[in-house]
Design brief:
Elements lengths: L10 E4 L7 H5 L10 E6 L6 H4 L9 E5 L7 H14 L6 E6 L1 H13 L11 E2 L9 E5 L13 E3 L4 E5 L7 E4 L9 H19 L6 H19 L5 H20 L5 H13 L3 H9 L7 H13 L14 H13 L1 H8 L3 H4 L2 H10 L1
Parallel strand pairs: 1-9, 2-3, 2-4, 4-6, 5-8, 6-9
Antiparallel strand pairs: 7-8
The structure holds nicotinamide-adenine-dinucleotide and zinc ion.
Nicotinamide-adenine-dinucleotide binds next to helix 4, helix 5 and helix 9.
Length: 360
């Protein structure tokens, strides 16, 4: 038995207003005055001084606003890398991603692809990346995915939706400033927050569970219950707690895996472009058989906050379309093995998955 030796985020700042320290933190990492920092910022912040007035741009640093409307694509990563190479004669000093999981994943992928040959799609999978990425910093502005702490960056490529999982993927630096999450719309707060909740349930109910994952998963679950089910927290405390829940949820799946909801949500994402957070919610509505207590708790949270979850999204799909989603879901073998056990192939049949998708 050989245990995995995982890298982690090497530095982290936590605190309300800590975003002000970004300039001081990255300054020593500047290679020279012509090696820029590239700031990838969610375009929801365009014209919003909360972020834009506080970006420590210097020399020929570049600010790039990126839309989070669609999830990151391998081709988008390749285009961004090409633009950076064309626009700057030196390799950047670093990439700073400011936004949700979408922008943070792009920042990680761009940092990797600046030092590795070929296309991003070549590196979708486990431990394919050869060279260390350039310095990269993550600044979450919405909480739940755990992308700030994970060793993956989830990309949709021409053939599959799959992460670049590697020792070089985790951020070198993360800035956790809960104040940055202040403008998140309520529905989105719930969808992305539920990503964290689902990480906890899938980790804690999985066959891969171990004391490492359990300790983080239980803490994150406790925080989620306080945030989404109880009325005891101030807005500020709730923002702080959800940022830490996201971190712990991400740590919990680092040493285990996600499960049924994620496998099926990837199918919805690949075929229909349904985003990760809301996709997990759509799927989780129908998973009583696998996670009875988790689904009951989820439904109580959804009702309490009066959140709309789309229905009937698969009602007009043809057999070939169901097949595409089922192929994507079934290809994620470690997720099923974690959720169901080694004999999962006998239990999770194509018909079973089709029947579930038909309910959504
Ligand atoms: P997101 O980044 O897609 O953002 C969701 C929406 O919230 C966007 O419209 C965005 O503009 C908006 N938003 C973000 N911060 C805001 C703020 N402070 N104020 C107002 N609006 C704000 O959402 P997400 O759920 O954080 O990320 C989803 C992505 O994360 C998916 O692409 C998914 O694949 C990825 N993901 C990655 C990991 C990982 O470990 N790498 C884990 C889970 C999910
Ligand atoms: Zn997730």
């Amino acid at each position: 038995m050989s245990y995995k030796n995982y890298p982690m985020v090497s530095r982290v700042v936590f605190g309300r207003g800590s975003f002000n320290q970004l300039g001081d933190i990255i300054a020593p990492k500047r290679v020279n005055t012509t090696a820029p920092f590239i700031f990838l910022v969610d375009d929801v912040f365009k014209g919003n001084p909360l972020i834009t007035s506080r970006l420590p741009l210097a020399y020929n640093d570049q600010l790039v606003f990126v839309s989070a409307k669609e999830e990151p694509k391998t081709s988008q990563v390749d285009d961004m890398v090409e633009q950076i190479i064309l626009n700057h004669k030196d390799r950047p000093s670093g990439i700073i991603g400011i936004g949700g999981g979408t922008i943070m994943d792009l920042a990680k992928a761009v940092a990797i692809m600046l030092t590795n040959e070929g296309e991003a799609q070549d590196y979708q999978g486990w431990d394919i990346v050869k060279n260390a990425a350039i310095y990269h910093v993550g600044v979450p502005t919405i909480s739940g995915t755990g992308a700030e702490v994970s060793r993956t960056t989830i990309l949709t490529g021409p053939e599959r939706k799959l992460g670049i999982n590697s020792d070089f993927t985790p951020f070198d630096q993360v800035i956790l400033d809960p104040e940055l999450t202040v403008g998140v719309p309520k529905e989105q707060w719930f969808y992305t927050g539920m990503d964290c909740f689902v990480h906890c349930i899938e980790s804690l109910k999985g066959t891969y569970l171990n004391a490492f994952s359990q300790s983080y998963g239980e803490k994150a679950l406790e925080l989620c219950q306080e945030i989404f089910l109880e009325d005891t927290l101030s807005d500020e405390d709730s923002q702080d707690q959800l940022m830490m829940a996201s971190w712990h949820g991400g740590m919990s799946i680092a040493y285990s895996q996600v499960g049924v909801a994620h496998a099926m949500s990837y199918g919805l994402g690949y075929l229909l472009g349904i985003k990760h957070g809301i996709g997990n919610c759509i799927v989780f509505e129908h998973l009583e058989e696998y996670y009875p207590e988790g689904v009951a708790m989820y439904k109580a949270m959804r009702k309490k906050h009066n959140i709309f979850i789309p229905q009937g999204i698969c009602s007009n799909l043809g057999d070939d379309e169901f097949d595409i989603m089922i192929d994507v879901a079934l290809s994620l073998e470690p997720l099923w093995e974690n959720a169901i056990g080694e004999n999962w192939k006998q239990i999770i049949t194509r018909d079973k998955l089709k029947a579930l998708y038909q309910k959504m």
